Amino acid sequence: MVVANPILYVALPLLVAFLLPLFGKIHKELIRVVPGLLFMFLIFNTVVLFSEVTSTGKPIITQIAGWAPPIGINLVFSAFSGFIAGIISIMGLLVWVYSYKFKKVEFDNSLKYFVLIMLVTAGSIGVVLTGDIFNLFVFLEIVALSSYPLVAFYRGRDGAEASFKYLIVGAFASIAILLGIVLIYSQLGTLNMAEISLRIGEMPEKIKITAFILLFLGFGIEAEMFPLNGWAPDAYSQAPGPVGAVFASMTAKAGIYTIIRLVFTLFDIDAGYQLLLGMGIITLVVSEGIALRQEKLKRMLAFSSLGQMGLLMIAFGINTKAAVVAGMFILFNHAVIKSLLFFSGSYLVYNSENKNIKDLFGFGKKLPLTAFLFGLGAFAIVGLPPLSGFWAKLSLLMASADSNLIALIALILIVSVVEIVYYFRVVNGLYFKKYTGEFEPHKPSWNASLVMLILAAVIVTVGLYPDLIYNYFVNAADALMDKANYIQNVLPSNFVGLN
Amino acid sequence: MSNLVIILAIFGWAILTYLAFKINKTLGNVFVGVLALALPAYFFTYTPSDYTVSVMGMSLQFGFTSFASLFAMLVVVLSSFALLYSIPYMNKKDRLGWFYMNFMFSVGGMMGILMSKDLVSLFIFWEIMTWSSYLIVIYQGKKVNKVGLKYMIFSAIGAYAMLMAIVLINKWSGNVNIEQFFASFPNYSSAAKLLSSLLLLTGFGVKSALMPLHVWAPGAYTKSPMSYTAVFSGALSKMGIYGMALVAVNLYVHSNMPIMGEVIAWAGAITAVLATFWAIFQNDIRKLLAYSSIGQLGYIAVGLGIGTELSVFAGLYLAILHGLFKGVLWMVVGAIEHRTGKTDFRDISGLIKKMPFTFFVALVAIIALAGMPPLSGFVGKWMLYESMITSNHFIMVLFIFLSSTAAFLYCFHFLYGLFLGQQEDEFLKDVKEVPVLMMIPMGLISLSLIAFGTFPGLIFKPIAQAMSTLGFENVTWRMSSLTNAWGNSMFLKPANFMFMAVFVFFLIIITVVNHKKTKKVGTKDIANGGEPIRDEDNLHYSVDIYRPFYRVISPIMKYKVETFYKRISKGIEEFFQFFRRIYSGNGQTYALYVVIFLTALLILSSTIF
């Protein structure tokens, strides 16, 4: 197929990112129009590729520059990676629509903003699609390097500080990942993920585990795992409103993807699942607990986001098909719901300096639509039926019951109560506390309202009829868990059979 | 017609009503009225049929069991009356569309719960009911965090306990169908039996405000608009009873775990006593009724927990009846609030002259509540006592006796404090009888209470049918007489007529004899022992009316389970405050964490991997 190709996911955003300044020279409006067109094309790309994957039941493997794997770099568009790539492109389009007018004020800012968003998109989707571990590292670096300036977008002291913290911790991640890759390459002489997966048993036990730990650490930083996520709350809360959504729905997805691939595909270490599960539990409890004590809205959302990442790690750490399906569902929900919360939340505290929760008291009357949608998002994320969050939680709980993790069920539910407390405090304040009058409400532009309404519609529709997308989760889970199939598809000739 | 249609219609109608209120208030009220009339009309004429939906590989089934339709009748009747009552009652409030939408959502939720034949759809509708009622509790915007959040937290704890039970049952039974769960329950291991049923009980116990899970109830019942509280306390709390009956009877009685039934019964008995005590000392009418509700639900729990045929019968009878009379009483409170704007005993007195109709319905409902002949409450109490005695729960009889005797105190307080007593002309000047649309629901329910007093068979019939779902086949009942275990029969018609005749006789005698001595008194008309009375002194008879009694029982009233919960929640928050320090905001610390994590993993690698 000429029109749709996995390569375009990476190549086009990168191209646009470099050409955007030139477009700006031709016409100022172009820098805001072109990214949108690009995202639309990416979604089209996803639809075409996805229908192909569903009809053939096989992943699409693209070789770059004609070199066949394992020597050449390849992109793998499977039901799993393609699904995440699809989520990233769709969320990218929504972020674009949302911020279309957001950055109208200054030309320079808006150029910078869209270039960075393009880079984040290219990087995140690249991470998800690539079949080469060094390539993955490069894409991860692209994501990180474009995230730092996004965090420090407003040239204030706090933004710079947050960005700097991210930089420090991110540097550790880069080093650890690189070291891990070096260890693997030194032993196996390959960087192709399928081949690594095939031959991982050849590595000496000690080195294998060390490599695993290094990669786990590095990917864990990107996947916002406790205690490696110190950078995340600051980054989320200092970045401009839509960037919070970008982090939740794009970069965090790339991060969790890496760690899933590490545990599920690359290595054959069973304890990896348990480690993921354990770290997920700790991340969940700690983050949700801290979210309870936050006074600033965006920080609260950030910690809640970390909690969701913990939930994701739990789901994938359980490592049964039901749990992975639940994990895909949570991943989808997190992208949709958390974006809605960031989108609406950033309008609620738009004019407030400290973004404190008490600054948005009484905004229910001032910004009825935004407040309502925030409330809807809060209802959805704590898992109240008939919204989409409920089904994800239910399927995760059922999966943990199937694996006999009864204490885990209780824990998740207790944490859910905590979640209810802090979200409902905000919603109550939004509607029933007295408006302080200190901050003028800022009306969302029509495009922002449109995006929020679309997200809300998705939440309600999926909540009422989860079967609409449930099959995608099942397919994705199948694609992820069938390691032999992955290897066979990437390396048809080298495949020697996996017992 | 499939069952699901009725629920979807209610939800759709709720949204339409919201939109209608956006256009015009009158149009909105018409929408409310239409649902209030259409709901019973549809419910009592349609023929139910089963319906199955498949979601995410689970099959969700809908259909009425005869047990569920008993409760559905209560829900339909009470909701449609409360909706009618609401139209004038809520007239002057704003955001009516929001209120009615959530009102209808919770009605739809309740109907959904009763229609669900599997636990997942039951849970979904349960949660819909919970959040819609939560939105109504906070609708008036008073004490949203203290009352609203407390309600939500307790509901969430209950609901999540239930959810945990559901996923475990799904694992142990292989599916979530309720009947199959009951069928496979005897095969569970004893730990599984205990865990699943206790979790379910917690879930249902929260909604039925069983102690010690009741702390949300007084606030939530008080802060919602009274027209909704009638449904809230009358029907919504019965959803807890509905579930508890299923668990208690199907799991404990029929599966040989009678000890757990005893636990429920004792929890109910203690709830009945303590809640009644608390009700006695309330100065706010709404609080009084709220605690009284909790106490009454305790009786029902006793009936269900004992688990004999008669006791379950009595429990269900009391449940239906409580829905009816408490519905009236909340409407009475709403009527008083509507006309005077006050709900405190110390501000209200002597309303009988201005609101005679309201007084009459309150009188009927109070007599039914107190369980005196000739009204229907008597029959329920009779059966409850008999079932306790025949099943050898003699100490429990004492508890219930204490509770129902103590209940007379608040019943008296309610009637006397509000309608009788001193008359303040200034206060009564602007008070009028309530509008007709509010009278109709109160009047009709009161009439039914009178009718059931003499012909309890009218409710016995559906209850007897319902009992067959619970495994009690061929329950005998009579239209208008009671036969006890010792073979004595009581015919209600002559007994009640005699009772009424005696009552009327003495009423006439007392009125005639005391006619001349009667005088009108205001609140300042009091022997003051030489001390001047200041304006701010509240000399209402209702102030501290039961102080001597309070002195006697105050030692046991000191311990509030609420303080215990407060301590727990404070402890949790402080614990997380400690967590918060982990995120110091210092980049170096974060880098240090990374290093520590790496080192720890490397050191522990031999044990982990």
Plain-language structure description:
The complex is a heterodimer of chains A (499) and B (609). Chain A is an all-alpha fold. Chain A has helices at residues 6-26, 30-56, 79-98, 107-129, 133-151, 157-188, 193-199, 205-222, 231-238, 241-266, 270-292, 297-318, 321-348, 363-366, 368-381, 388-402, 406-432, 446-464, 467-481, 483-490, and strands at 60-63, 74-77. Chain A is 75% helix and 2% strand. The model of chain A has no long low-confidence stretch (mean pLDDT 85). With 609 residues, chain B is mainly alpha-helical. Among the domains of chain B are: 273-516, no CATH class; 561-608. Helix content of chain B is 72%, strand content 3%. Chain B has 23 helices and four strands. Chain B has helices at residues 3-23, 25-43, 66-89, 96-115, 119-137, 144-173, 178-184, 190-207, 217-223, 226-253, 258-280, 285-306, 309-340, 356-370, 377-390, 394-419, 425-428, 436-454, 457-469, 492-514, 547-557, 561-580, 587-608; strands spanning 51-55, 58-62, 481-483, 489-491. Chain B is globular. The mean pLDDT of chain B is 84. The chains are: A mainly alpha (499), B mainly alpha (609). The interface between A and B is large, with 64 and 55 residues.
